[in-house]
């Protein structure tokens, strides 16, 4: 079971999230939080796998809560950020704070379920409604010098990183490199560990920020 904490300052929204997630056989909503501060406290106490939280909440907003959870909860649960606002500052604020996914509230319920499952597997998911916007934003970034950690990657790991940044799945990368899907998973895990990244979403951000792969 994927133990999940739901955080939103609106009771109807929390009820709707619980209804969607508890209907799945592999997901259990173990508790709710009414603001960011309570979400952090309960994430510490409940040993949850995933936190689904709204980005606009009183006392502590979602971006600050994501950052606090990543820094102070051990082991830190994956976080799926949820908002009604399709705005760059929320998307990038949430991802840079450590979120594993970003879903708009008006998206199909199935997408939220998929995001929770992906987060529990250490993967990331950005709502397709904002993916195009994210790529445009990446394209406008001024590349930063590649950090020394990049030198730790083998040529094959660097190749895998580039494929991930292009949006390829593990199966697609395996076909492109003529290796097994399990081998690709191993390479992805090593890249994440060597670069100090948490999810595939952050691998994409890293690749574009450091001009490892120019957007096309």
Automatic annotation (TrEMBL):
CDD domains: LuxR_C_like (cd06170), REC_NarL-like (cd17535). PANTHER family: TRANSCRIPTIONAL REGULATORY PROTEIN NARL-RELATED, TWO-COMPONENT RESPONSE REGULATOR. The modification 4-aspartylphosphate is found at residue 54. Keywords: DNA-binding, Phosphoprotein, Transcription, Transcription regulation. Residues 3-120 form the Response regulatory domain. It holds the Pfam family Response_reg. PROSITE patterns: HTH_LUXR_1, HTH_LUXR_2, RESPONSE_REGULATORY. Gene3D superfamilies: 3.40.50.2300. This is Response regulator transcription factor. It comes from Lentzea kristufekii. Residues 146-211 form the HTH luxR-type domain.
């Amino acid at each position: 079971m994927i133990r999940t904490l739901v955080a939103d300052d609106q009771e109807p929204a929390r009820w709707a999230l619980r209804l969607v997630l508890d209907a799945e056989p592999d997901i259990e909503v173990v508790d709710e939080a009414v603001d960011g501060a309570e979400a952090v406290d309960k994430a510490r106490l409940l040993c949850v796998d995933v936190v689904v939280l709204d980005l606009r909440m009183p006392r502590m907003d979602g971006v600050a809560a994501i950052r606090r959870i990543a820094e102070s909860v051990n082991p830190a649960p994956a976080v799926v950020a949820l908002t009604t606002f399709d705005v760059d500052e929320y998307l990038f604020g949430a991802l840079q704070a450590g979120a594993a996914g970003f879903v708009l509230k008006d998206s199909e319920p199935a997408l939220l379920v998929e995001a929770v499952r992906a987060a529990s597997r250490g993967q990331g998911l950005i709502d397709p409604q904002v993916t195009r916007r994210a790529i445009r934003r990446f394209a406008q970034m001024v590349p930063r010098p590649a950090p020394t950690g990049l030198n730790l990657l083998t040529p094959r790991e660097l190749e895998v990183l580039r494929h991930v940044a292009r949006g390829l799945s593990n199966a697609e990368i395996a076909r492109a490199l003529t290796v097994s899907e399990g081998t690709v998973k191993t390479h992805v895990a090593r890249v994440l560990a060597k670069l100090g990244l948490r999810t595939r979403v952050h691998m994409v951000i890293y690749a574009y920020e450091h001009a490892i792969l120019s957007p096309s």
